[in-house]
Amino acid sequence: LNCDDIDNITDKEYIASGWTKAVYKGLYKGKPVAIKTVDIRGQDVGSCVEAGGSVEDCYWRAAQKIVKEIVILQGIPHDNIIKVIGFCVPQKDSEKDGGRTVVMVTELGETIDLIKLLQMSWEERLRISYDVTVLMYHLSGTLYGPVSMNDYRRQQFVLVNGQLKLSDVDDVGFDEPTCSEDNDCLVIFSSSNFTKKLQCVDGYCHGYNEHRNLFNAGRHFTTFLLPHGAPKTLKLPIDEIVSAYNSLSLNSKKFVEKMTQVVNAYKSGKYLNRSSVEQKKNYIKYSSRDLPGEYDYRCRYSMSGGGCTVSVFDRKEAEDLCSRDPECKSFVMTNSLTWTGMCLVFL
């Protein structure tokens, strides 16, 4: 999208604002988009004006941060990084731009908070844990160098159709600390009472940005999302992943390998650990039928806001789930599949 296209975005609605930016949502040709621009009433511009700057100069100083984001987001593209759909960067003193402002348009994502994460099903939390691990691997070796997320917070991420995406990169860096010996390369997290020594290679602390990002990814996502509610048969590999995040004993490539093994074990149904002899359940099958309004109830592990929606590997798992739940009287198999290929079922 160019400046003219952005002018045609309709149904704009304010979402949120941060230190520098104000974020709106809108529709472009019927598709939802996010619009990011300088928040003229934000703290960034306000503190600059209080320090003696003019409103115009302070605006353009803040706008440079959005320009930086546009460049970085387009320079490190990935499935787990928000996609830039278009932007408008008018010349500072150009009259022909008609008072346009610096604007970036991206995919529209859903904000993340701790309560929302904890209310997700385990399969949804597995996806987020996998996504953030794959993203950290990508950031460890971009064309610009290893990315350092200097202000690592959950608020920098959004969900787009259930997929985790990094959306805020105005505070990232690419330089790793210089050093003369290994003792100069300490990754320190004082709040977690954790320190790890890295190698000094060719005058730089090798892997410093990668390890900082990994520790924060574990702290903000994986170490508390992955173990809670996981299938018992996956407990051992998950415990190993959590331990490795806490100790930074693996690099991001090895973390991706470990996480992929867990995802594949879940996709294949190996987590069910079935015996060769299974007791048959007394369920009657009705083809191409639903049970609207009958036997509906809400369950704690539902993937939807109302009722009881779960994902299963096959009909046999649906039968087992329903049989173990005293409130469940029936279930409906659907044709809808989750990101792992599981079948959505209404209990």
From TrEMBL:
Residue intervals of the Protein kinase domain: 9-284
InterPro entries in UniProt: Kinase-like_dom_sf, PKDCC, Prot_kinase_dom
Gene Ontology molecular function: ATP binding; non-membrane spanning protein tyrosine kinase activity
Gene3D superfamilies: Transferase(Phosphotransferase) domain 1 (1.10.510.10)
GO biological process: skeletal system development
GO CC, alphabetical: extracellular region
Protein name, per record: Protein kinase domain-containing protein
Annotated source species: Lottia gigantea (Giant owl limpet)
